[in-house]
Amino acid sequence: MTAGDAGRGRTTPARRWRAPIAPLIIALVALIGLTILVYPTAAAWFAQREQSRLLGEAGEVTDAHAERNAASIAQAREYNDALRAGARIEANERLPLGGGEIADDALDYRAVLDDDATGVMTRVRIPRIDVDLPTFHGTSDETLLRGLGHLEGTSLPVGGAGTHAVITGHRGLADARMFTDLDRVRVDDTLTLTTFGEVLAYRVVSTTVVDPDQTESLQAQEGRDLVTLVTCTPLGINSQRILVTAERIFPTPKADREAGLADPNASDAPWWAAILGGGALIAGVYVWRSGIVSVR
């Protein structure tokens, strides 16, 4: 028999795929770990996307109802004139609480500055920390998971001498940034409130950390137009409060007005999805190659 005949007589072992138990477990554990790693970023991305959607819808409604906007702001100013309020922040509680008395029973807090389509009262922009968030009535936990909350019992965010609006937000949530970076805001930074088509610009005049029962600085001050942003600190303990107080800039700078009326920024590219997809692809290839066996 020639060498060629011998070569033709040999057969190449057949290959087939069998589910490899150990590699499957390794790949599954790796994917679970990768999912846990990217979850906070992914959740924050979806939260920002939803908040931008709400702001966009609120902006569209505002653009289409100029007369309603003027009437809503006028009613909010009546509310502020009638407000006799006090604010309180309970010790060791995550949620600030407010209470106030209104001289005019016809002015219902929940009905003033109420956008039926979205519920957005005002839009808060803080360029220093890249915050662009909707603000809703009240400070319930449900509200503060959607965005920021206006502290009932303080002035509504329409400006005016002798007003002091207080806006609160969570810090350190796993699935949303909210006011996590509020401690990075500095004196002389600016922020804007966009309320029913009207843009109000403010310059930060103080940043302080106070105990929960120190609420004197949240009261309105004669002749001043103020807004204070409130969140908890230290992270995870929440025993104190960060107060960032800003005073109105007159007139509203053109750049701030344009930014306050512009469409909200789109969410960043979901790079976390590429990482998760790449990890799944690598895990799949690993399992597939591990399952190839030769059969004679």
From TrEMBL:
SUPFAM superfamilies listed in its UniProt record: Sortase
Active-site residues per Swiss-Prot or TrEMBL entry: 170 (proton donor/acceptor), 232 (acyl-thioester intermediate)
InterPro entries: Sortase, Sortase_C, Sortase_dom-sf
Domain of life: Bacteria
Pfam families: Sortase (PF04203)
Keyword tRNA processing among record annotations: no
Recorded GO MF terms: hydrolase activity
Transmembrane residue ranges: 21-47, 269-288
Tagged with keyword Protease: no
Swiss-Prot/TrEMBL keywords: Hydrolase, Membrane, Transmembrane, Transmembrane helix
Protein name, per record: Fimbrial protein
